[in-house]
Write a structure and sequence with these properties.
three-stranded antiparallel β-sheet; Aminopeptidase; single chain; 5 strands; 2 helices; alpha+beta
């Protein structure tokens, strides 16, 4: 039987959400740090080698600021000995349905 552990909690629109990880995962599962954008892009480049090279500039920094500070968007990474080896994007949305 798998055992799950709390990674981190987040409060979105007054509700509390929790992210859990399974204990058999190798490395540390955590939310990305602000200064790890280049490492995340390197990981993506490794996975999609034919993609064009990205040039980091002011517009890239502004976009990363928006993504990182979005309370409904989370980048979860696997950190193995200080190196990002995997990532997952979690987008939390609220859907209101009128009945």
């Amino acid at each position: 039987m798998p055992s799950f552990h709390l990674l981190e909690g987040a409060k979105v629109n007054g509700r509390r959400y929790f992210i859990y990880w399974e204990k058999y995962v190798v490395g540390k599962i955590r939310l990305i740090h602000y200064d790890e954008l280049e490492e995340l892009l390197y990981l993506y480049k490794h996975l999609h080698a034919d993609d064009p090279e990205l040039v980091m500039g002011d517009s890239s920094k502004l976009l990363w600021d928006q993504i990182y500070n979005d309370k409904n968007l989370y980048y979860i990474v696997a950190d193995e000995e200080g190196k990002l080896v995997s990532s997952c994007t979690l987008a939390v949305s609220s859907i209101v349905i009128d009945s």
